[in-house]
Specification:
By secondary structure, the protein is an alpha/beta fold. The protein is built from ten helices and twelve strands. Residues 103, 105-106, 118, 120, 122, 127 line the site of zinc ion (ZN).
């Protein structure tokens, strides 16, 4: 066996950890890749090996979620820099509005030796502009105006919040598992790390149209707990419902784990699926899982591809998808 590097994500592992062992495979994983592999290997192949993205852009719920994430990201980053709250809110709104309108300089930016970075100094595709979100809500679609109003209500509701922002939108990585065959570097993106007075905890922003229960069996949350050496994450729930009171739309329930549950995930579940991924990669065969074609967000975007005849799949892929940027755990996909 060679000391081959399986690179799914943006950073080759040799840049992060010294290759000190021989004949061991290094794998970099994050919750998005891991959860997709758990769900459907073929979907993982489409998304993270072929880097396919829908030609029609993100769904309306994803776009509205991204607007709120951008708002909170810039709000918290301003707070970290010591900006006053009222002004930090303005930074948040400016970023959210730019996300809605789109920034021409960084969208689909291709780096060249002369110009390695877009002149706006944003991350490539950081402000893509919305394509499936109208100004005002219509039917099942949430409008961007209502999304901005929700941000405003959120700030009003939490105006006396005592949680102290320590970090926002950061990626951390650590080797969470190692045996004779494999070494797994887990990368986690944290929306928000806050000092709540009870301790320092990861907080995940979750926007939603309907109230939904948060399940504990969640790779993202467990990975975050292990990296932060804590047994709790908080979910910063942000509801878009116009009919609910702020106190019902904006809640921060904790998700708590026992030490035994985290250890089981780290020592058994994580290596099992990582090894399965290595096997898929080695054989080049990524089998479909028909039980994942329908999920809580609706149908899988690749459903039509899988439903078409095997000899038609390639042309269906070309018709409905384009090659996007290489997956990187700093992207959000909530
Ligand atoms: Zn830009």
């Amino acid at each position: 066996m060679s000391d081959e590097i399986v690179r799914i994500g943006d950073t080759p592992i040799e840049q992060i950890i010294e290759p000190r062992t021989f004949g061991k495979q290094n794998v970099i994983l994050d919750a998005t890749v891991f959860t997709t592999i758990m769900a459907c290997a073929r979907l993982g192949d489409f998304k993270f090996n072929m880097n396919l993205v829908s030609i029609n852009g993100k769904s309306n719920s994803l776009e509205c979620g991204s607007i709120v994430h951008k708002f909170l990201e810039y709000y918290h980053k301003a707070l970290i820099k010591g900006v006053r709250k009222e002004q930090a809110v303005q930074f948040g709104f400016a970023a959210a509005e730019l996300y809605i309108a789109g920034c021409k300089d960084c969208t689909d930016f291709i780096p060249t030796p002369e110009q390695p970075k877009p002149k706006c100094e944003h991350q490539p595709n950081e402000f893509e502009g919305v394509r499936n979100t109208p100004r005002n809500s219509e039917g099942y679609k949430i409008g961007w105006q209502d999304t901005l109003d929700t941000c405003d209500q959120y700030i009003q509701f939490w105006k006396n919040d005592h949680w102290v922002t320590l970090e926002a939108e950061v990626v951390k990585g650590e080797v969470l598992y190692e045996d004779d065959e494999i070494r797994i570097l887990w990368k986690a993106k944290f929306d928000w790390i806050a000092d709540t007075n009870q301790g320092i905890f990861p907080v995940d922003h979750k926007t939603m149209k309907q109230r939904r229960e948060t399940l504990k069996l969640n790779n993202q949350f467990m990975g975050q707990c292990l990296l932060m050496k804590t047994r709790n994450v908080f979910i910063n729930k942000i509801g878009f419902q116009k009919t609910l009171e702020p106190k019902e739309k904006f809640t921060r329930p904790p998700v708590s784990y026992s030490a035994a549950a985290l250890l089981e995930w780290q020592s058994e579940t994580l290596p099992y699926y990582a090894k399965l991924l290595l096997m898929y990669n080695e054989t080049g065969h990524f089998p479909p899982n028909y039980t994942h074609c329908e999920n809580k967000y609706g149908n899988c975007p690749f459903l039509e591809v899988c439903q078409s005849n095997p000899n038609m799949r390639e042309s269906e892929l070309k018709r409905l998808f384009k090659v996007g940027p290489v997956w990187d755990p700093t992207s959000d996909e909530d």
